[in-house]
Description:
The protein contains 3 helices and no strands. By secondary structure, the chain is mainly α. The mean pLDDT is 91.
Amino acid sequence: MQSLLYLISSMIGIYIWVVIIHVIISWLTAFQVVNKHNQLVSSMMFMCDRLTKPALQPIRRYMPDLGGVDISPVVLLLLLYFFRNILHEYWPQMG
Length: 95
């Protein structure tokens, strides 16, 4: 059981990094720091978008319009940290 809980916690940690990378890449392309037409950048954008869109879409549906500012990744990160902390709270020996 410990191995399964450790795997879930690790996967949540990896997904947290995917969301952070998605936000950074979207900022860099929005401010034209990196070129969207670069194959590496476009493939990373595509991968991050495909991985985060299913989790961000329901959050965006219920978020109010804040004038072009998307805070749904922040909400998703808070939820992911919350779930990971729940795992550590109920199974503290997990480390």
